[in-house]
Amino acid sequence: MTEDDRLRHLEKRRGDGLLRTLSPLAERYPGSAVRGGTAFADFSSNDYLGLSRHPDVVKAAAEALSRHGVGAGASRLMTGDYELHHALEEAVAAFKGKEAALVFNSGYQANVGILSALAGRGDAVFADRLSHASLLDGAALSRAALFRFRHNDPEHLDALLARHRGAAGDAVVVTESVFSMDGDRAPLRELVAVARRHGASVLVDEAHATGVFGRNGGGLAVEEGVAEGIDFVMGTFSKALGGFGAYLAASRVTVDYLVNASRGFVYSTALPPAVVAADLAAVEVCGREETRRRAGELLRNADGFREALRNAGLDARGESQIVPVIVGESGEASRLSGALAEAGILVLPVRPPTVPEGSARLRFSLCAAHGEDTLRRAAEALRGLR
Ligand SMILES: *Cc1c(COP(=O)(O)O)cnc(C)c1O
Fold this sequence. Notes:
The protein is 43% helix and 17% strand. It is of the alpha/beta class. The longest helix has 23 residues, at 289-311. The protein is globular, with a radius of gyration of 21 Å. Pyridoxal-5'-phosphate binds next to helix 4.
């Protein structure tokens, strides 16, 4: 690919209304953000519980920063392995109801590093069609055969397994628990039952469920009592936990194997101690009664917001704190986003190829800091624009 090819790629994207550009914030707080000197109600961040600014989380990071400095200095297998990383892994294993856990440097790196190590040539991965890009990239890198089942459709998974499981060595079923761009929930119990019937293992990405759902914020698998039946529970510290990094909770054997075989784990410098300290504090804060109460309120507010939009004739979806409003054409999603920004509401358009063609949307990420007034103002502004 030449520089000219790259230029043409950008021009085509611009022509299709799909050009991606960066627009920096000056500051962000739970529920609000400052961009270009203007304050906005922020509906595009995933800091659902405001933990990025929780005093106990910030204090843990500050203390670790002054004690350990900024960088970890090496990969985990060299000298970047701190006691803090192990404390975090023990906390996550307990939080997720699994035997062991392993910390990764980001959710993207985790999914690529986990799937590419767990599956190989001759195996098969069966992934929900709307699975996050990192899961699909991990499956592609593994060289296993990839089959995509219809979104949240255990019967289609059943049919694909019946057809293709036999030829495969090992089979892994992959899904998100709360879908990032649709805000709906996977039928985990049914998916696990189908996978079991075909002798397949199950990997669930809890990026958007961790912290919001489940006892102590352990996620949807914990809430639905199916953590036991899920072999690999992955999630991030970067969303409701307000920090950075990711984890896999699984058996001790799987974790020990990944320490040896996951290239994303082996060949990358460890997360900075201050980040790990913040993540550890966030897991603890997440389980507190006060936080659980706020998470419950967040989900109720999201239901009310969705209802208000639907009553206004809008196609508002989801079953979580994520409320996508489907508008169809990319140009229309961009226009609405621009007009809402004029009204002080920051909600970015999500367009293909992140979502399927013809399903461009505004994705409202609600957070506990949004008051009723803000939600009413956002719903009214959107109603006035359609
Ligand atoms: C955000 C996200 C990731 C990536 O996590 P990062 O920590 O941001 O790299 C992976 N999976 C899903 C479903 C996500 O929404």
